[in-house]
Amino acid sequence: MNKIRKGDEVVVITGKDKGRRGTVLKVFADDRVLVEGVNIAKKHQKANPNMGVPGGIIDREMPLDISNVQVFKPRTKSGVRVGIRVNEDGSKQRIFRSTGETVDI
Q: Whole-prediction pTM value?
């Protein structure tokens, strides 16, 4: 079970975009995440008339390491570490480390 999943609202805790929030668009297998509106880079794109893709310089989100983001907790308006609790019946659930509350509602 991953501590950060697609659709989570996260806050960046280090790097050039420190403090920015966004939604996780994709989680890669090599422990990187793609966050909406964060880590924007310029990409020189060649035109492809067959697919209708114009050429030029576009802004594109690039992946971040998963250790550079934390799940955003709306009540405290800050990033919080996430852990995993195993219940008596063997099921797992994500919890906030600071309070023990469940992340998923």
A: 0.85
The Cα 77–Cα 3 span in angstroms is 19
Count the Cβ atoms, other than its own, within 10 Å of residue 15: 13
Angstrom distance (rounded) from CA 5 to CA 23 = 10
Distance of CA 72 to the CA centre of its chain: 10
Token code pair at residue 86: 């195993």
Give 28-70 pLDDT, tens digit per residue: 999 999 999 999 999 999 999 999 999 999 999 999 999 999 9
Report the CATH number at residue 32: 2.30.30.30
